[in-house]
Amino acid sequence: MNLYDKYVLLYRYYEENNILETLLKSFNYFASEEITKIVREIGEVSPRLTPPGITEVKLKFERAWLGKADYTEREGISRVIYPNEARIRNITYSGPVYLEFSVYEDGSSKGKYVVNIGRLPIMVRSKYCNTYGLSEEELVEVGEDPNDPGGYFIINGTERVLVLSEELSTNRFYVQMENTSVKARGFLLAESLTAQYPHIIDLMKDGLLYLSFERYKRVPLILVIKALGLEKDAEIARFINEEDNFEETYINLLEFADVTTQKDALLKLANRLRLTGSDEIKIEKMKGILETKLLPNIGMGNSYNLLKAYNLCKMARKLLLLVHRKIDEDVKDHFMNKIVRTPGELMRELFRVIVRTVINDAMYQYDRLVRRGRIPQYTSIFRSKIFTERFESAMGTGVWTRERMGVSQTLDRTNKLSVLSHLTRVWSSIEGEAELLEARMVHGTHWGRLDPIETPEGKNTGLRKNLAIFSKISFEEYDKEEIIEVLRRIGLKIVS
Asked: Which GO cellular component terms are attached (predicted)?
């Protein structure tokens, strides 16, 4: 194939494929699917106070949706708006977000309500943008550039881009040698949470395994496993060792051989963490910690405890396999261990935080009106100004959840290539001042995914990259039951 044929092939490829397709799909998926999932995660809420004659009030959130981009004039007239008008008039290109919920008073349904909880910035050229589906002639007619690729937002007249974020993959454990010690380290994130919870398993020189999670440091791993309900030493040894015969497993089991029941393990663990109260209160506090703080990605509640115990055994086994040189340590720079977060995912994180704030404020407004002796109207307690201002502020300043900075940036409009370069830029979560040589170097798994050439000089070398022109990011979520069924068909069994 000569050079001309390669150019023709490249040209034909981009006739049928948009280089920014991933960005647009991620926003469409967030707006059409994930905002409803988030409000359903919240489930039901109840105000602390109720009007006279009513014992209990519950609001059950059912779905949410985003409307097309529009603008309301001072006269109160709402009309369709296009991106170019938003630029010229220095306004935000956004659409209304509606929330549907049912109200129950003393167990009886009082009907469904729909309320506008605020306005969400809309990605240009997404299916919620008013330019979606228009031909070149129609775009010119409404004052839009037919060659504009979209993939960005307009906040107060300024074009802003949510930069792709490269992070270490969550909900996975990584085992590495650190000086003379061995650690298994994981960052776990439950779907309903916004903070990452580091979990670390240490192997000490005396052969004992310790687990650190959230603010609880150096907790004996075997005690935690027994407190989760996996009580028998023989079962623990079977899950950790499998076909191997690790000496460290028996050292740990022997250390806590006197702990024979789950209740004993919970009490001993509570005393070690210096929990206060009677033995029964200590046990209940310990149960709450294990159910909510330990491995939140698996689930929260008593029904997930055994599954958490099995996973801890699996990670202890992986750690011991590394100690005995049966596996290699994990390479964090391998792209298998990385995730690139798209604009839709970044907005999902922010939406989850802000919508909870709006609902908590609505409950506060309900309580405040009840104190004044008034009967609150369910559609009037939601203040849309909170949602709108917080979203605009985050996207206008780049200050995001988990104390991240620079997530949103002003789009580089120097020329068309600079626009495409900025929209496909990938920022690492590592700070530029960090002296991590390996993280800055090109890894073999970057081939076909990241462009090793387009990286700046100076402190950000190797940390600021771009997607390769043919790379795509998968972001769809798959049904867990379907995955379990596929695993079952290839011969794996669910441990019961």
From this structure: DNA-directed RNA polymerase complex
96 Cβ partners below 8 Å, 6+ apart? 66, 67, 70, 116, 118, 119, 120
Three-state SS at 409: strand
Full strand arrangement of the beta sheet holding 44-45? 44-45, 57-66, 94-105, 108-121
Paired tokens of 84: 């170019």
Whole-prediction pTM:
0.85
Q: Write out pLDDT tens, residues 20-75.
A: 888 999 999 999 999 999 999 888 999 999 998 889 999 999 999 999 999 998 88
* Per-residue pLDDT tens digits for 82-137: 999 999 999 999 999 999 999 999 989 999 999 999 999 999 999 999 999 999 99
319: containing domain: 173-323
Nearest one of 207, 204, 291 to 252, comparing CA atoms: 207
My answer on whether 36 and 161 are in the same domain is yes
CA distance 396 to 155: 6
Distance of alpha carbon 432 from alpha carbon 139, whole angstroms: 41
Instruction: Tell me: do 250 and 218 sit in the same domain.
Output: yes
Q: Angle, to 10 degrees, between the axis of helix 35-42 and the axis of helix 343-371?
A: 40
169 Cα distance to chain centroid: 11
Domain total in the chain? 2
Cite the beta strand spans of 224-294 per DSSP E: none
Burial of 80 (0-12, 13-18, 19+ CB in 10 A): exposed
| Last residue within a domain, chosen from 262, 296, 323 | 323
CATH number, position 259 = 3.90.1110.10
> Does residue 478 sit within a domain?
no
Contact criterion met (CB below 8 Å) for 175 and 183: yes
Please give the angle made by the CA atoms of 429, 316 and 314, to the nearest 5 degrees: 90
* Per-residue buried b or exposed e for 238-247, using 16+ beta carbons within 10 Å of the residue's own CB: ebbbeeeebe
In sequence order, what E strands does 403-444 have? 408-410, 425-428
14 and 79 belong to one structural domain: yes
